[in-house]
What does this fold into?
Amino acid sequence: MPEDDEQRIFIAIVCTDKGQHRRLRLTTARLLPSERGMSFALEHFAPPMRNAAPSSMVSRESYTFICPKCRRSPLIKAEAWWRLLEAWGEAGHDEFDISLLP
It folds into this structure.
């Protein structure tokens, strides 16, 4: 297997409201050798946007996740988010429940 394939990590981002509702997939995080990103932007999460209006749910520095089931909407700074996911993926996990964020 080529070395690049070994470095590819895909993590499903889900919400369960700490086990209170069925697992709902919000997006998929991609950690590739040359890129980081997530699928389905602005559907169940919003990436940091420099020109975000202060009155919007979108942050200038943080990812915002929005669960349509329980309305949980945690924010996490972009740098912290990618550090967390890298460690999560390296530990062998392929799913992360955002309801576990403080």
